[in-house]
Amino acid sequence: MKRLFFFIFLHLIVFLILITSYVYAEDKVFVCKPTIAGLQLDSGNYYFENEDDDKTPLIDKLTTTQFILREENIFYRNNKNRIFEQLIPYKSFLNIDLPSDDYNLVSKAIKIFQKWDKFLDLPARTKDFETYIYLYSFHHKDDNLNHSIKRISIDTKNLITSEITVPMTSKTPPYFVARLCINSEF
Q1: pTM recorded for the entire structure
Q2: Which residues pair with 77 in a beta bridge?
Q3: Which of 24, 59, 62, 142 is the most exposed place for a label (fewest CB within 10 A)?
Q4: How wide is the angle at C-alpha 91 spanned by C-alphas 145 and 158, nearest 5°?
């Protein structure tokens, strides 16, 4: 009986792996490693580091992310412990009617995005460069739920992403991350 159960269980696992592989067969999966990171210090100055610097304490704390291109949609996973979540196109996000409290938070985030855009002098958007919003929530070490708004710009031609994260419920300052991506088999 134990062998029969093990035999069925093993075949079920193989079947599920095959189905999962088939489901993602048409998708393009990208793995993105942080290469540049920066944040604004309390003094108002900006701190940046590049992966080639001798010390990279900020980059070392960042996770490798993934995104999936599935037809017209993009799904994003901030780290291996999360599931893939659909990104909201930035244009659509700006057109959402929100209650005044939420609108104030979103307005604050948009002003920070604009400040970073000006400081970074980001290049003009091309047809390969799309921008999305990711509403990110996680439990911190003290078990409090923290929320952030990420604006993620993806250049699918050059395989780079640019992320500006605005923490909404923690004292972490807004930060910028550029990532270099590779096409990966799922």
Answers
A1: 0.76
A2: 66
A3: 142
A4: 90
Residues 6+ apart with CB under 8 A from 45: none
Amino acid of residue 108: K
Joined together, the tokens standing for residue 128 give: 């390969």
CA 50 to each of CA 19, 38, 74, 180: distance values in angstroms, whole numbers, following the listed order: 40, 9, 27, 12
**pLDDT tens digits, the chain, 186 residues: what are they?**
444 333 333 333 333 343 443 444 467 889 999 999 999 898 989 999 999 999 999 999 999 999 998 877 899 998 888 899 999 988 888 777 777 777 778 888 889 988 888 888 765 555 567 888 888 777 666 667 788 899 998 887 888 899 999 998 878 899 999 999 998 764
Residues 161, 151: Cα–Cα separation, whole Å: 10
SS3 state at 145:
strand
Question: What's the rounded Cα separation, in Å, for the pair 123 and 153?
Answer: 11
- What residue has token string 């592989």? 21
Q: For residue 88, give every residue at least 6 positions away whose Cβ sits within 8 Å of its Cβ, in sequence order, or none.
A: 132, 133, 134, 135
Sign of CA dihedral 65, 69, 70, 74: positive
